Amino acid sequence: MVRRAGCPVLGGSFFGQSGLSMPFPPSAIVATASEASPSATMSTAAALAPLFTLRRIRLRHNPPFMADKPRVFSGIRATGDKTLGNYSGGYRQYAATQESGDAFFCIVDLHSITTPIEPADLREYTLSGAAMLFATGLDPERSTVFAQSHVVAHAEAAWLLSAATSFGELRRMTQFKEKSEGQDFVSAGLFGYPVLMAGDILLYQTEIVPIGDDQRQHLELTRDVAERFNQRYGDTFTIPRGVYPEEGARIKNLQEPERLMSTTRGAPQGVVRMVDEPDVVRKKFKTAVTDSETEVRHVPETKPGISNLLEIMSVATGETVADLEKRYAGSGYGQFKVDVGEAVVALLAPIQERYRELRADERELQRLLAVGAEKARNASEPTLEAMYDRMGFVKPEAGRFFGAARPRGL
Ligand code: TYM
Q1: How confident is the model at residue 12 (pLDDT cuts 50, 70, 90)?
Q2: I need a surface site. Which of 56, 78, 301, 403 has the fewest CB within 10 A?
Q3: Highest CATH level, class, for 27-33+66-250+362-398
Q4: Residues with Cβ within 6 A of ligand 1?
């Protein structure tokens, strides 16, 4: 079945006018006022307001790109089933920020091959990743959703930017250290991963990057690389900044509340997957690790398990952590854990229903990705061209071929 955006399904609009009704308002998302002072936060509206003025000033001497709304970009890897952590730092932020900017969301399949992955799995996770982006509220009419490998500018930008990124900077990346630790084979791609990510962001003259806290260091590196490139070759890139959720910027594993919830590391029983059956979700919350006290309070240093559950409950219901602490004062952990499980089941149920329908229609997914890739190629081309030009590359007589426009065999 070929479905177009806006078709009524499930008793409502799939990608309709109001989009997916999210359990939190866009104002629940906060942006860092500057990456240099990551503790400073402000509401999205306040964060976005000055950008319109800034853009006009910057564009006078930064011509490769022009748009009316602030540009938003984020990426998500096609590796494994996605988690509640991805929902908190990723999906729900994407759906919220698409309302306020000219938004691009990318399934970063080129990043997926930096750690071992079977070809069949890469294919599956790329398509299921696209289905999940739409199921969690991205509207293909409003947002550009595409696969990274469909826009060759990303690979080219990474190579060009590697000239402005130092070995020392990459060696300091926490994610590289964690992912390479104890591995027999560490790919060169894993080391260069943040350069590819910098290219993703900078190619689109991005101002806003909605991400979780684990990506903060990569975003800071992107800013440094952009500034260095601008200094060396002249103003070329907008300097992007991260947008992090106020609650749930770093959701932890339910069994090991000191470590990030992730499908690649940590106890599987503590990882809530977006596609987990309701009973599996309930069980994971019932068996979540807490502490020897009884008070439901948010104290991450001494009560990491309960604090994590409070944040998850806040993400699932939209209630603040402070209100939840009041509601559960004196009630003990047992009921609280059951309630968090139920709240997550209720959050995931409609998403899973939409996801199953979307994933079953592979042709439509491919069509939507093709539409997204075309838009992404057009949007990234001027910046890539400016990069080549400013770095001194000789322009080919016949012009450069970008993406799908490149004839096969060339
Ligand atoms: P990835 O695929 O690991 O995760 C996608 C998004 O989910 C967030 N996230 C979390 N947020 C809160 N709690 C958690 N436990 C949790 N786990 C994951 C991540 O912060 C991310 O926002 N390098 C990126 C992909 C990428 C990208 C980009 C992101 C490539 N290019 C350009 C932004 C812009 C990554 O591996 O995300």
Answers
A1: very low
A2: 301
A3: alpha beta
A4: 73-77, 85-86, 88-90, 108, 111, 197, 200-201, 209, 211-212, 214-215, 218, 249-251, 260-262
